[in-house]
Amino acid sequence: MRSRRTVLSVVAIAVIAAACGAVASRRLMQDAPRYAQVIAVTPMSRQLRTPHEICKTEEVKHVRPQLEARASAGQRGAADSRADDAYTTTEEHCATVFEIETEPLGYEVRYRLDGVEGRVHMDRRPGPRILLRNGRVADST
């Protein structure tokens, strides 16, 4: 009877050990690094438009309307009226211009692993393959 218990104990220990070994090897296989082949890399970015107002001062020449010129000619004389027909003012002209800046947003990466395609967003451009650990992107090489 004692030998029967011993045999059953040994069998039970063997079954438990085999189960633990299977679980451990499955975990090792899941945790083992895997590499996916990079199929395509698309840079992502957005444009930022920042408005700026640019102003400049210009001298503008004006000519008085004929009625004013004639009235002043009658008061001062014909020679003086020609000089008084034109006058200059200083005017400020402003325009809004946009500074356009491109902000990088990372890379959209298509990859293939075991015949199945996937997509992932990465902060930096990957190499020809990407490292996956536990089904997540770990790094690129």
Structure description:
The protein is of the alpha+beta class and 141 residues long. The protein folds into two domains: 32 residues; 108 residues, no CATH class. It has a five-stranded antiparallel β-sheet. Helix 2 crosses helix 3. The longest helix has 30 residues. The model has no long low-confidence stretch (mean pLDDT 79).
List the defining traits of the structure above.
rod-shaped; 3 helices; alpha+beta; 2 domains; five-stranded antiparallel sheet
Structural class: alpha+beta
The dominant shape is rod-shaped
Number of H/I helices: 3
Count of the domains = 2
Tally of DSSP β-strands: 5
Mean pLDDT: 79
Helix content: 25-40%
How much of the polypeptide forms β-strand, as a percent range?
A: over 45%
Please describe the biggest sheet, giving its number of strands, its sense, and whether it closes into a barrel: 5 strands, antiparallel
Strand order of the largest sheet: 3-2-1-4-5
Q: How far apart, in Å, are the first and last alpha carbons?
A: 62 Å
Low-confidence runs: none
Order of helices and strands: HEHHEEEE
Radius of gyration: 42 Å
SSE layout:
Blueprint: H1 2-31, E1 34-63, H2 66-76, H3 78-84, E2 86-113, E3 116-122, E4 129-133, E5 136-140
Antiparallel strand pairs: 1-2, 1-4, 2-3, 4-5
